[in-house]
Amino acid sequence: MTVSKKKKLLLVSILVTTLSLVFLVLSAQSILAYMKDIKAISNSYTTVQKYAVTFDANGGQGSMPTQYMFYGVNYNLNPNTFTMTDMIFRGWNTKADGTGTAYNNNEQVVDLGNITLYAQYVQGIAIVNGQVYTTLQAAVNAVSTENIQTTVTLIADTSENISVSSGQNIVFDLQGHTISITSGCILTNAGTVLIQDGVLTSNSTTDGAVNNTGNLTVSGGQILMTNDRGKQAIFNNGTLEITGNAYIYSASSTAAGNNRRAAVQNTANNELLVTGGTIVSSGYHGIVNAGNMTIGTKDGTANRNSPVIQGIYYGISSNNNYGFYDGTIKGINASTNNDSKINDLEQGYSLHSSTEDIGGDIYHTLTSAQMVNLDANGGYINPDKIFALFGEPAGTLPEPGRSGYAFDGWYTDPVNGTLVDSNTILTEENNTLYAHWTHAIAAQVNGVDYYTLQEAVNAVPKDGTQTTITLLRDAGDKAIIDAHQNILFNLQSNKLINCENGIMIENNGTLEITNGNLGSTALYGTINNNVGGLLVINGVNISGKNRSAIYNDGGSVIISDGYITSTATGKPTVASLGRAAIQNINGGNVTITGGTIVGETQQAISNEGTLTIGTPSDGIDTTQPTIIGQTYGVVTIDTFNYYDGTIKGITDAISGTITNQEQNTQIVVGSDVIDGKTYITNHLEENN
Fold first, then answer.
1. What would the mean pLDDT of 603-610 be, rounded to a whole number?
2. What pLDDT shows up at residue 481?
3. What is the pLDDT of residues 514-560, one digit of tens each?
4. Do the beta carbons of residue 663 and residue 685 sit within 8 Å?
5. Which of 35, 134, 444, 557 is the most exposed place for a label (fewest CB within 10 A)?
6. What is the pLDDT of residue 385?
7. Contact between 330 and 308 (Cβ < 8 Å)
8. Rounded distance, CA 62 to CA 257, Å?
9. Sheet of 87-93, strand order
10. pTM, full prediction
11. How far is it, in rounded angstroms, from Cα 390 to Cα 413?
12. What are phi and psi of 469, to 5 degrees?
């Protein structure tokens, strides 16, 4: 029984084991079959339901992997990682040119299908801390108001009205770009701003180009008001500094209260410092100042080249006193409205006034310069002081005169010293220069040498015999010719310059001058030709400074060739007409058959006697002689005969009546532009 039970149990165990093995075999086969079915189903689903989204940089930089998606499932597009220089990513599009379907960055999408999305960009305008903005104002708005200096870089031209708030501290790096507007104000500043390049240009009539109530520094670039009915280029109601190579310009001439518009207007109690740059108004004043103003830097020296302040009326119109340490102030009416408002200069400097031709307009200029004394050291010089700038080359120095001596140059000591020429750098120790001389032969008569021109003249016989005086060197002499002397004066291309008060040559006899230059820097005329005197000019250049080059007082003058000019102003005491290069009075006789006569400040010729221009003949020369005046070419109240040549004047060619002119001719009126100035011209032509 016991054995039988054991056998039964063994048989049962074998049976169970066998059945388990069979089940396991059958289960494995079923699982494998099931898995094959699942894989087949999965492969079938993947082939039908999965798609790819490809990203294209579209000209940009960088790379992005393809994004795979399944149909029926929502996805967010991968964030963009592409970049393009100076551009801002604005989204995706199914077409490169942006004409397809648009998608935003990281937009949620579904069932796009296999597709390529192209990056789209918009031009950036400005950059702050590496971030690109589509407007300059947006970039400005990104700057802290905690007075942390921040650079705003302009990367494209723009047309915007910009405001800077209090507390903002901005350096505008315009990179040569332009901000332009037609209304409003380009820049309204209540913070701290530095402009160092680029162009701000306004054609507005409602505001200035830049309005400042904060702290503004312009060290470069251009600020332009181009509308003549506009306001200022810069209106300062705060603190303003203009320096470096900044250029400020305004065309505005519109009235502003009691003032006219200016390139820069500084209001009451506000600060204006101009240490460099150029400020120009073609409408009215360069600067109008009612506040605290300083021009230049007080550092012991004066730089007359910068800044430059120029106005069509005044360079500076100021109600208050101001310091003037550097630069030049220019204006057509005057340099300033009141030079006495300049209450401080560099120590040892003085105001120096002069004139300058700018585009055909004569400007009065004002600079700050030192005075250098000129000691003629036994000779004579006029003027005996010049303006100079210590630390800069001396430039052209005037030449003194001394009878019987040749000028050897300017020296730093009366006896020895160092030679000073145009290239010598002047210092405070050079505030007086001394002429040095060599006793030298001036002229020769009949083989005999003479130290002075007057000594040579005195050697000429007084019997009417023509005698030649030969000038052997440049000289600073003067001479009187007796009524019975007949002199041929050959200058031999030398210069005869009179720096002493008095007439250079006074002729009472017969005098012919050839081949050289005569000039006077004195208060008197160069040549006086008196009653009974005959003066013949042949190939000589004659210049007068304060009076006439030739003053013919009842004598006779014949000019066949040469260049005669004068900067004379005012009226002579004898003649009723204004001064001229040639003054003919008291029934004098002047005949001009060739050469050029120029009145640089008034008329070329004033006639109260008999004036003959040209030679009566069958032909007409329309080129010689040439008569040019700043007012009239010829002013005549007596006999005027006109046969050849051209006469020119800005007011008119001729004032007065032509007594005789070439037979069968007519006056032809025209115009000519010389150095930007328009002259009315007259010449003769034969009647048809």
1. 95
2. 97
3. 998 998 877 778 999 999 999 999 999 999 887 899 999 999 999 99
4. no
5. 35
6. 83
7. yes
8. 60
9. 67-70, 50-56, 115-123, 87-93, 102-103
10. 0.59
11. 18
12. -110, 125
Q: What is the mean pLDDT of the chain?
A: 89
Biggest CA pair distance of the chain: 196
B/e letters for 227-265, b = 16+ CB within 10 Å, e = fewer, are: beebbbbbbbbbbbbbbbebbbbbbbbeeeeeebbbbbb
Measure the CA–CA gap between 209 and 227, rounded to whole angstroms. 10
User: Cα–Cα distance between 597 and 609 in angstroms, integer?
Assistant: 18
Burial class (CB within 10 angstroms; exposed 0-12, middle 13-18, buried 19+) of 341: middle
- Indicate whether 502 pLDDT > 80: no
Average pLDDT over residues 430-441: 91
Q: Which two tokens stand for residue 251?
A: 């065309």
Given a cut of 50, is residue 99 above it in pLDDT? yes
533/555 Cα distance (integer angstroms): 5
- Reduced to 3 states (helix: H, G, I; strand: E, B; else coil), residue 23 is helix
Nearest CA among 103, 111, 153 for reference residue 132: 153
| CB neighbours of residue 316 within 10 Å | 32
Check: CB of residue 518 under 8 Å from CB of residue 540: yes
Q: Which two tokens stand for residue 642?
A: 């006109």
19 contacts 13 by C-beta, under 8 angstroms? no
Whole-number Å distance between alpha carbons of 98 and 294: 57
State the Cα–Cα distance between residues 411 and 420, nearest whole angstrom: 6
> Under DSSP, is residue 555 helix (H, G, I), strand (E, B) or coil?
coil
The number of CA neighbours under 13 Å toward the Cβ of 156 is 18
pLDDT, tens only, 173-225? 999 999 999 999 999 999 999 999 999 999 999 899 999 999 999 999 999 99
**φ and ψ of 175, to 5 deg:** 50, 35
pLDDT at 23: 44
Which residues is 583 bridged to in the sheet? 551, 606
- Amino acid letter for position 67: Q
Beta-bridge partners for 660: 641
Task: List the strands of the sheet with 527-529, edge to edge.
Answer: 479-481, 505-507, 527-529, 550-553, 580-585, 603-607, 632-636, 652-655
Chain segment 105-157, per-residue pLDDT in tens: 899 999 999 999 998 877 789 999 988 899 999 999 999 999 999 999 999 99
Question: Do residues 364 and 353 touch, judged by C-beta distance below 8 A?
Answer: yes
**Run of H or E residues at 19:** helix 2-49
Which range in 511-525, 551-565, 570-584 is most confidently predicted, on average pLDDT? 551-565
- Whole-angstrom Cα distance, residue 679 to residue 298? 45
Please, are residues 270 and 291 in contact by the beta-carbon 8 Å criterion? Answer: yes
Q: Is residue 497 predicted with pLDDT exceeding 70?
A: yes
Residue 620 has pLDDT above 50, yes or no: yes
Question: What is the Cα–Cα distance from 316 to 568, expressed in whole angstroms?
Answer: 29
Q: Which three-class secondary structure string do you get for 202-246?
A: ECCCCCCCEEECCEEEECCCEEEECCCCCCCCEEECCEEEECCCC
Report yes or no: 315 and 367 within 8 Å, Cβ to Cβ.
no
